[in-house]
Design a protein that fits this description.
Elements: H1 3-8, H2 18-27, E1 29-33, E2 38-40, E3 48-54, E4 57-62, E5 68-74, E6 79-80, H3 84-87, E7 94-97, E8 101-107, H4 108-117, H5 122-145, H6 148-160, E9 165-167, H7 172-179, H8 183-196, E10 199-202, E11 205-208, H9 211-217
Antiparallel strand pairs: 1-8, 2-7, 3-6, 3-8, 4-5, 4-7, 9-11, 10-11
Helix pairs in contact: 6-7, 6-8, 6-9, 7-8
Length: 219
């Protein structure tokens, strides 16, 4: 699938005509990133949004003492960096590559022009924001109702998807940031899953051996 075809599957651009899509693709630029490359930092002045074509991008916040909380993990087809398009505020989080990645960068101006000429397209924006609110609500519920062990189980299942064998695409420190706990507590939770026979671990590779129990613990 070409980059242009990928954009047609992105929520924000799903209702564009071929001419409107051409306006977007004419303005876009493809950027290759290496692990650790920073696309933008919290507080930066924004000018463009991004779509991941390959690799993984972490969206995160940092505390004043340097601790990181990973808010989201962006993969192929995921859109990010779009919020300032509508509120003209600075970046609320940072974005960096977790591995060799490629993203499409799209300037705000041609997108804003489309919305001014066809305001009915903004219903797609409403749908996107509603989805983001649901994700935020779910994360808040997890922080209230799940302990560290439960949140760790849930994140491992999310990273595994429908696979029983998978390689952790992030470091233990980054996983801890996603869980919202210290690395030591997350490692302790993983060790308990291994001891119970729910997963097998070899470095950053995992095999789920009892998905049912892991799913129960993640509820």
């Amino acid at each position: 699938m070409s980059d242009e075809d990928l954009l047609t599957e992105v929520e924000l651009f799903a209702d564009l005509t071929s001419d409107e899509m051409a306006t977007i693709t004419d303005a876009m630029a493809v950027r290759a990133l290496q692990r650790g490359d920073v696309l933008f930092s919290e507080g930066d002045e924004p000018t463009e949004l991004f779509v991941v074509t390959s690799g993984r991008i972490a969206i995160s916040n940092q505390s004043v003492d340097g601790r990181e909380s990973m808010m989201a993990l962006m993969e192929r087809g995921d859109l990010f960096g779009e919020m300032p398009l509508f509120d003209q505020m600075d970046r609320s989080a940072g974005a960096r590559a977790l591995e060799a990645s490629e993203v499409i960068a799209i300037p705000y101006e041609p997108v804003q022009s489309l919305y001014r000429s066809r305001p009915e397209l903004l219903w797609r924006v409403v749908a996107l924001l509603a989805m983001r609110l649901r994700t935020t609500d779910a994360a808040l519920a997890d922080s209230v109702f799940l302990d560290v062990t439960g949140r760790t189980a849930k994140r491992l299942l999310e990273l595994a998807g429908d696979r029983d064998e998978f390689a952790l695409p992030i470091t233990q420190e980054e996983l801890a940031g996603m869980v919202g706990a210290s690395r030591e507590r997350v490692n302790k939770a993983i060790a308990s899953f291994v001891r119970l026979g729910w997963i097998e671990q070899l470095d950053r590779r995992y095999r789920i051996t009892n998905r049912e129990q892991l799913e129960i613990r993640a509820r």
